[in-house]
Amino acid sequence: MTSSVTKLTTRLILSHSHAAITGTLGPIIVLLLVVLLIENELLRATDESASGRQREVLYIAITPLAFAFSLIIIVRFVDILRYGAVP
Questions:
Q1: How far apart are CA 41 and CA 31, in angstroms?
Q2: What phi and psi values does residue 46 have, to the nearest 5 degrees?
């Protein structure tokens, strides 16, 4: 199962251009990250003991999205430095 998922993911990534992948996944990742960060701040404002557990669960989702967001920004910046303005 893992082998077929890895092959499928590799084939999908190689069949599309970098601009197409980051152009579609980038906004989705950013939007989801913003929504989760807003939810985290709203939970922090409630000051309830139950919200502490919910915030821990949110951190599990926020951390990889923050890394993905950082990677997208770094790749876009490198593209701009290498090729000039991105269309």
A1: 16
A2: -75, -30
